[in-house]
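Build the 3D complex.
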Amino acid sequence: MRKIEHIGIAVNSLANSVPLFEKLLGIPCYKTESVEGERVNTAFFRTGENKIELLESMDPDGVIARFIEKKGEGIHHIAFDVEDIEAEMKRLKAEGFVLLNETPKQGADNKIVCFLHPKHTNGVLIELCSTNGANGL
Amino acid sequence: MRKIEHIGIAVNSLANSVPLFEKLLGIPCYKTESVEGERVNTAFFRTGENKIELLESMDPDGVIARFIEKKGEGIHHIAFDVEDIEAEMKRLKAEGFVLLNETPKQGADNKIVCFLHPKHTNGVLIELCSTNGANGL
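Done.
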């Protein structure tokens, strides 16, 4: 775990929330991206060495829509930048954490990612992420 | 908003969660501190330029205990480092955000802090924080 890469925030509507976060942070959104595999539209902000990622569901029954239905809009996950995602997955599994995907999968922002089950992390959904290609993947 | 200063995570028990986050992050907790005014015990980890702050309630009816009762353990707030907290409070108020305290109050880690109402920030509890004394306070 080198550093926090980004914080993911579930929102109902990027059209509403991008201007809101621009006002809050005092900086413009620098990128939007759709991740078909996860059925989400994303919008990114930079703050210090971290990013804020807003997540809007493409579908009414997508993972983000279901999160909002259950808990309301709010922080969805913390993503940590890791150097070698497979080594980190192995280390965490040995420590008793539960991986939500056993092999890294494609995320937004040219990353490969793995999520940890929040049941074993004090209710915090943790994402490990690594720049795609960094490990020869 | 210069950068994310820390992420606050509500936990039932520091005795259980400090070892858990030490395993998760692969680093030791470097400080614990009690904040009487907020009735919380805190434990800090460093990751990159950010901190992770675990929050345990001192009282069964404290703000953190009530948060956990309602939402379960998990991410409680994001704190942004600001240079001049009063100027930032004024700017955000003018933008339509609602301050939960109209004057900065004492937080953990030698900070003065102000919270924004999550109703106007997509359900995310935002803390502004500034090192105590930095503005002559």
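The radius of gyration of chain A is 15 Å.
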